[in-house]
Structure formats: structure tokens, C-alpha cells
Amino acid sequence: MTNLKLLWRDRRFWRISGQFLAVFLAVVVVIILWSNLNRNLQQLGIKFGFDFLKQQASFDIGETPISYKPTDTYSRALWVGLINSLRIAIAGIFLTTIVGVSAGIARLSDNWLVRNIALVYVEIFRNTPLLLQLLFWYFAVFLGFPKTENKISLWGLIYLSQNGAEFPWFTLSPEFSALLLGLTFYTGAFIAEIVRGGIQSVPKGQWEAARSLGLKPGLVMRLVVFPQALRVIIPPLTSQYLNLTKNSSLAIAIGYPDIYFVSSTTFNQTGRAVEVMLLIMLTYLTLSLTISVVMNLFNRMVQIQER
Amino acid sequence: MTNSQLLWLRKNLFSTWYNSLLTVVCLVFLLWIARGILIWATTQAQWAVIQVNLRLFLVGRFPQSLYWRVWIVLAIASTLAAVTWGVFSSKQRLTKLGLTLYILIFATLLVILPLDFTSCLWLLLVGVLLAIGFWIGRRFTKVIYPWISLVWLLSFPIILWLIGGGLGLQSVSTNLWNGLLLTLLMAAVSIVLSFPIGVLLALGRTSNLPLIRWFCILYIEIIRGLPLIGILFLAQVMLPLFLPVDIRLDRVVRAIIGLVLFSAAYMAENVRGGLQAISRGQIEAAKALGFNSLFVVILIVLPQALRAVIPAIVGQFIGLFKDTSLLSLVGLVELTGIARSILAQPQFIGRYAEVYLFIGLIYWVFCYSMSLASRRLERQLSR
């Protein structure tokens, strides 16, 4: 009896039994959901399994970096989608860094006009939905361009038309261009604020010391202030890169065939909700993890090296 | 031009040759853009698409005979907002400029919006209520302050009841909740529901019970690794598969579940930041006074932690407000969804720029005012 009373008062008992209760409840819920799922799938006549990946996809994809025909398999189609996702993510991360860092530095310029243009840019792009911006770039801007016959020339370097952006050595489809511009300017506005915060976190004494050594303002920024600001900038910058990659799934709204677009078409044709969802999860978790790992390595490089 | 103006120009625009060059380039760029926009807006754009469809943008296909309910909802929400604003800005003086600006905004709204007589009266009433609410908030700050969040919470079911009906009111199917109304509703419902879940997840993640901690970490990291559109897909398509056959969930309810699942994970990370900001001494002091763990969390830790992360939560709300636009991709007719259906009307085909700019402006006004409010709150809390 006294033993039981002791047990009753022991905090360890409560901690362990509480956890087991929580796990037990979670397991029960999962079992119920799982049995519902099985029953529902049975009723729909679908068996769980990934063999549908070997079937013929029989849908066309607008943009194919590797050779692809509608007679190819679903796995080939998904592969094309994945490469398209990677293309947009890498190009987006590269461009948005340039735009974001420039706008962030411009926010601190001593030129009133530059400072305020950057401010207006940030406030406009940060406070409207990305989806809306993408729709605007695609439908209002790119589809609003003239036909290919009278394309607009920008200094003979870029030609803009309904067929997208033509550079002398390559062409970008209107879907890719709109998605890239949308993601770049949206994420860039967030990065600008991160960069500004990072630069402002560097003590003023660092500026003054560097200036007193006779360094020009540009060099002070590049050699003294920015490397120190990077320590503050990188962690939130990483999450912006992750956001950009995840947000690239909005490609479905303007018809750029990324992995989400292809998966969703696959689901519509085969009805394989569970398998497709697992594939989507796996892809994005892998992408996110890769970006995190790379950025964490980079982060370790710029931290203060102490003995 | 006076001397001081010249000095300002010299200091801010033409301090070095390099800055002068930048100024000139920027000016040319601005003029070029302004000219383009002006020409487009006055000669090429057809603003009729906005004028004709204003009702659709705001409330969609909500039955016209029941508009009074939407107006009452607007009146309640704006009065409460004004009271809250009054309470939090009690230290500032109301300037003459602010008052003139306020009256001017309402007057222009009354003039430009193509409203009928009753709507004008309602709008006028809302304007007056805003002013009264602000005055009450400033006058009775001390009395109202502790109750304000409770009043907000209580107003919530009333607002839902007014919009959805039932209990003596004619009920309105969720199919007819459209436009800005649905956008605001989805954002508010999701943030309110995801808040307690987020707090629990954050507590779980920082708890020293390993099983619970792992479960919370797993949930938060998986959800944060997925794009929102994937989670909405999960909620729309997979959720019915996980439920018993005879339970059918409404499309709007499924969307809310998706948004809550998503938002709770992000909320948890925000709250975790607040939890980490609390020094161990606070917890130890509370324990030394004989509080048990539950009371330490509820009475000591959470109030301090949540206070610290209010700005982050407002930021989360802004993000969620923008993200509701994705609901148009899973078939809901909120602001972006209604824009899509308006663009499908045969007489307005191709008027993308006008429609998108207009709804962009609506989103912008809401998000920008929220971010202004959050900045102000931050300043007030850091005092």
C-alpha cells in the first residue's frame, strides 16, 4: 500500500506513464486512420503500390530538359518534373540573392531617392501574395507581350515576346520566365530586409575604424562590414531559400511543369493519392534538407574562428 | 528655392559625382515608369471590370437580401479594431492631420465606390462607429485593456453565426461565402485555431519528455518542409480517405484544416523563440515558491513568452493572409478565386492587369496596415 502511494507521488512515474499514454493514443489514432484509409481505397478499387510508375504516362509536358514523349513512363515524367524544379530553384536562388542583397544595401544608401525606391519595392512585393504576383507576371506581362513577329528588343540583348525571353544564346519559356521573375522579386524583398538588418547589426565602430584606415566606402562594405553581417544574415537567408524552393510549387498556377505539377497530373490520371503524396513529401523534404546542409556548411565557414 | 532646400538636395541627392549619377538614373527610370503607367491607366485599361463586379470582389454570391448581416459583421469588427487601436495608441495625441485624413478617406470611399443609398448609409455608420470606438478605447484604456482579447474571442462565434446563419437566422451555404469575405474569414479562423495547437507543439518541442519532444519535432519539421499547396492537397484529397465513409467534410472546413495544420507548425516555431527567451531563473523561482509544472507554464512562462512573440505572430498572420490566395487553386472562391471567375466572363476576357492590380491593392492595404500595427506594437512592448 505504501509502495503504491510512493509510486503515486513519484514524478518519474507520471512522466513515463504520461508519455506512454500519449504514444498509445497516437498509435490508436494512426491505426484508426490507417484502417479507414484501407477501407476507402478498397472501395475505390485501388491497391497501394508504386507499380503505376512503370505505366505509360500519356500526357505531354510543355518543357522537357531531357527527352520525353507521352509514351514514356510516369517515372520518366516525374523525373522531368524534378529537373524542372531544380532548374527553377537554382536559378531563383542565384537571382534572388543578387536582387535581395542589392535592394538591402540600397535601403541603407545615403542617396534619398535610391533609399526610397528600395523601400517602395520592398513594401509592395512583401505585402502582396506571391500567387497573385505570379499570375500578374504570366497573364498580364508575358501574355501581354506582342507576338514573335514584332518582339520587343531590349538593346539587342534580350527579345521579349509571347514566346518568352530570348537571349542570344538561349531562350526561356514564358512560364519559366514568369515563375523566375515572380519568385525572385518576391523573395528578394524579404532578403532585402534580412540584409539590411544584418548590416545594421555591425557596430558603427567597425565602419569608423575601416574608414580611418583610408578604405573607400565600397571597400569598407565589401571587406569589413559585409563579412561580419553575413553571420547574422545566413540563418534567416537559408529559410528564405527554403521558402523559394517550396514556393516554386506554385508553378502549377501558370502551367510550368515542375515536380508538383507533374505529380498532380499523375494523381488526376491514376487516382494514386497516397503514393503521389508520399513522392511529393519525399522530394521536398530532400530538397529542403540539401539546402539546409549546404547553407549550414557555409554558415560554419563565416562564423568567427576561435581557438 | 530656399537655402535649406538646396542644402538638403546637395546632401541627400548630389553629395558625390557617383551619387549624382545614381540620382539621374533613378529619376529617368521613375519618369519612364510613371509615364508608362499613366498612359496605360488612362487610355488602355478598362476599369469597368472593377466597377461592374465590385460586389463580387467583396462578398461574392452572398445573397443580396442578407447583406445587412455582412454589414453588421463589418460594424462589429471595425468597432472592436478601433477600440483596440485606441487602447494601444492611448499615449499619442490625435492630430488634426490624422482626423482630416480619416474623414477624407471615408468621403472619397463614399464618392468613388459605386454604392447604392443603403450601402452608403451603412458605410457612414461604420465610419461613425470607428470614430466612437477609437474615442472609447482612448478614454477608458485602463478599464478595457485586460478584457480586450476576451471580447475579440467572444465576437468570433457571433461573427460566424451572422455569416453562416442557423439558430433562427436563415442559413447560408459555404458555397456562397466568397470574395474578400471568405479571405478574411479563412485567415482569422485559421490563426485563432492554430494558436493553441502551436503553443502546445512549442511546449512539446521544448519539454524534457523525449517521446513527446520527438513527436513534436517530427510534426513541425515535416510540415515546414512541405509547400503549402501540398498540404492543401493533403487536406482536400487525402483527408476524406482517412475518415470513415459516412463522414463528409465541407470543402471550406477541409481547407481550414489544411491551413491550421500548416500554420500551427510555424506558430510553434515562433512561440518556441519566446520560450527560449525566458531565463531559467523565472522557472526556478516559481518552482521554489511551490508551483507545480503545469502552473509554472500557465502562470509564469506562457504570459512572458507570448508577450515577447506578439510581433512574430502578427507577421505569421500577414503571411497566412497572403497564403489564403492559394485556396483558389483547390477550388475555393476567395478573393483570388473570384478574380479568376470574373476573368472568365466573356465581356472581360484578357483584363488581367486591371483585376490583378485591384485585388493586389486590397491585399496590400490589409497586409501593410497589419505590418504598421505590428511595428507600433513592437515599439510599445519594448518600452
Envelope shape of chain A = flat
* Secondary-structure class of chain A: mainly alpha
Strand percent estimate of chain A: under 5%
Share in helix of chain A: 55-70%
Identify the quaternary structure here.
heterodimer
H/E element order of chain A: HHHHHEEEEHHHHH
Give the N-to-C terminal Cα separation of chain B. Answer: 41 Å
Rg from alpha-carbon coordinates of chain A: 26 Å
Strand content of chain B: under 5%
Structural class of chain B: mainly alpha
Kindly describe this structure:
- Chain A contains 10 helices and 4 strands, in the order αααααββββααααα.
- Chain A is mostly helical and 307 residues long.
- Chain B is an all-alpha fold.
- Helices cover 77% and strands 0% of the residues of chain B.
- Chain B starts with a helix and ends with a helix.
- Classes of the chains: A mainly alpha (307), B mainly alpha (383).
In short:
The complex is a heterodimer of chains A (307) and B (383). Chain A is mainly α and 307 residues long. Chain A is 69% helix and 4% strand.
Short descriptors:
heterodimer; A: 307 residues; mainly alpha; 4-stranded antiparallel beta sheet; 10 helices; 4% strand; flat; B: 383 residues; 18 helices; globular
Set down the secondary structure blueprint:
The complex is a heterodimer of chains A (307) and B (383).
Chain A: H1 2-9, H2 11-44, H3 74-106, H4 112-126, H5 130-142, E1 152-154, E2 158-161, E3 164-166, E4 171-172, H6 174-200, H7 204-212, H8 217-247, H9 259-270, H10 273-302
Antiparallel strand pairs in A: 1-2, 2-3, 3-4
Helix pairs in contact in A: 3-6, 3-9, 4-6, 5-6, 6-8, 7-8, 8-10, 9-10
Chain B: H1 3-12, H2 17-44, H3 48-52, H4 54-59, H5 67-88, H6 96-112, H7 117-139, H8 141-144, H9 148-164, H10 179-206, H11 210-225, H12 228-242, H13 251-276, H14 280-288, H15 293-308, H16 310-323, H17 335-343, H18 352-381
Helix pairs in contact in B: 5-7, 5-9, 10-11, 10-13, 10-16, 10-17, 11-13, 12-13, 13-15, 13-16, 14-15, 16-18, 17-18
